[in-house]
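Listing S7. Sequence submitted for prediction.
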Amino acid sequence: MKVYSVYDPEFAPYGKVLEGFDTSEILQKMNEIPMPESGTLYEPGIASLESVVEFRQFALRAYGGMPIQLGMCWGYNTKLNCLEYHKDSEVNIGTEDFILLLAKEEEIVDGKIDSSVVKAFKAPAGVPVEVYATTLHYAPCHTDAAKGFRTAVILPKGTNTYCPIIKEKGFEDKLLTARNKWLIAHADAPEAQNGAYVGITGENIDIAE
């Protein structure tokens, strides 16, 4: 699978690199959080990360003054497994280089999306990367199996917390798995075994291969 850079023109439909942010304190705080033995972990908001000076700058400049949360996804991963989207952009910052597997919301056709449309993009450590609301994404992939990945996740406050109880009145309602989180799983993904909607066809991409 070809891996593009977030600086390549191919990334433009999916997101952009943000400029003028000092991520050094965020990286320091992230590195203080222990790695899991295996797999991945995610916390929507982490107090030590939200205490950094630049947290307010991300709220003001990246989200135009909206309330935000600064959490982290971290661990070890090389697989696609799922694709999710929010109704807003997400900002990611890695302590190490990491890879995002991305597709576009409009590539979901009749409730299905083939994994062959997914593209891989490498983001350098310390660089804030905005992923647009219309971009399908999921857990980052590490570039070094010995180090894994720690990736900051900045989103509007409340995202990825409790799932509202709704009556299904349309297809998209089937995908709602948390607050402001719509998710499509591959049949081989653990999430599918836990009841997530299965809509990714083709292979479950594994960049380790």
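Caption to Listing S7: primary sequence and predicted structure tokens for the chain studied. The radius of gyration is 16 Å. The chain has a mean pLDDT of 97.
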